[in-house]
Specification:
13 helices
Length: 379
């Protein structure tokens, strides 16, 4: 097996998709979680029915490698691993676990309480907002660059379905107990003179930040997409059972003869932790694309294994690590140079491409990705 591609969990409005569907932005991968595929990885070209969109992934990989005159992998040597069904399968479980569960009972089951997950979701969105404003990737009226918070009238005219008026409403929703993007309030702490923050306040701020981030082309104008992506990442980081299920499936797909592992977004985080668990059982080139590890500090501090002395663990299974980040990706432009978090040895590169949440194709077609893949396939 030459190459394993790990695609992230669900994204988009609602935060989860039915097991019969999978979306990677404009790539509609189709029923990857139906039948034998739900049991393990999808082996492209190995007897499993190949969907058009999976073939597009293989074609994009081949194209970028061919462009740098590297060895083009055969389609039968490429495994596209989709973990969306595991995320979707945990949605109902989470609802039951959160319903009437106290903090102690939630932690005993390896699942954070709903409020704790929402607080982490808010922190992630806040970091993404700071990143988006810094890189200036916004569309529409200049006011939409302003941090959601006090200062705008709650009586602005416009339809709720109008993006401009929706953004104004978002800014007003954060006027109470707001937290400046990039800042992290210690667990259980409140602002000076403020009462304890309840779950409804956190959810209101989360919705407001997500709606405001819809002004970024990365989130495609959807007021729910940023929150859905942040919640999926929060659930992975706080639900130990989900985390281990996803990691186990990924480990099973990485065989001794695997040469390259590619991970995108949350998929890069999943692949990284799976490689950590594999120790030196394999030796691969790791290609992380728009990795979640490049995001807010709250992600980095929750890695498994945990960072030591503010430095992340380098998996023994990784022979060489290429980290590619799109300049238009606010979720990964917070810390695009992973050498700052994991030490020297990572080959970081920021590329100028237009991409959007869950959109793997622009990354795969870029020559930087092609060079990384070719290096790993030759080695």
């Amino acid at each position: 097996m030459a190459l394993v591609v790990v695609v992230p969990g669900p994204s988009g409005p609602g935060g989860s998709r039915s097991p019969g569907t999978r979306s990677l932005g404009p790539l509609s991968v189709g029923p990857l979680s139906v039948g034998p595929v739900s049991v393990g990885p999808l082996s492209v070209g190995s007897g499993v029915r190949r969907t058009d969109s999976v073939q597009r992934v293989v074609t994009a990989l081949s194209s970028s490698v061919r462009a740098v005159r590297g060895p083009v992998p055969r389609s039968g040597d490429v495994v596209v691993l989709d973990v969306a069904d595991l995320f979707a399968g945990r949605t109902e479980h989470d609802k039951k676990a959160y319903q009437g569960a106290g903090k102690a009972s939630g932690e005993a089951n390896g699942v954070a309480t709903h409020d704790e997950t929402e607080e982490l979701t808010e922190a992630l969105l806040s970091g993404w907002w700071t990143s988006a404003t810094r890189i200036g990737k916004f569309e529409g009226h200049p006011d939409r660059r302003r941090r959601p918070g006090p200062g705008l009238s709650s009586h602005s005219s416009g339809s709720p379905n109008n993006p401009a008026s929706q953004n104004t409403a978002s800014q007003n929703a954060l006027s109470r107990n707001s937290v400046s993007p990039g800042e992290t309030r210690p667990h259980g702490a409140t602002e000076p003179g403020a009462e304890a923050i309840d779950g409804s306040d956190v959810r209101a701020r989360t919705s407001a930040l997500s709606a405001a981030l819809s002004a970024s082309p990365y989130f495609r104008g959807s007021p729910e997409l940023a929150a859905a992506e942040a919640r999926a990442l929060s659930r992975y980081l706080t639900d130990l059972k989900l985390r281990h299920e996803v990691r186990d499936r990924t480990q099973a797909a990485i065989l001794p003869d695997t040469k390259v592992v590619v991970g995108h977004g949350i998929g890069a985080l999943i692949a990284y932790e799976a490689l950590c668990a594999l120790s030196d059982a394999v030796s691969v080139t790791f290609v992380s694309l728009g990795a979640a590890m490049c995001g807010p500090q709250q992600v980095f501090t929750r890695l498994e294994p945990a960072p030591r002395n503010e430095q992340g663990h380098w998996p023994a299974a990784i022979r060489r690590w290429f980290n590619v980040v799109a300049h238009s990706d606010p979720t990964a432009m917070i810390a695009p140079q992973l050498t700052e978090r994991f030490g020297p040895g990572i080959e970081d590169e920021v590329i100028e491409i237009k991409t959007s949440c869950g959109d793997l194709q622009p990354y795969l077609l870029d020559r930087a990705t092609g060079r990384a893949l070719a290096t790993g396939l030759v080695g």
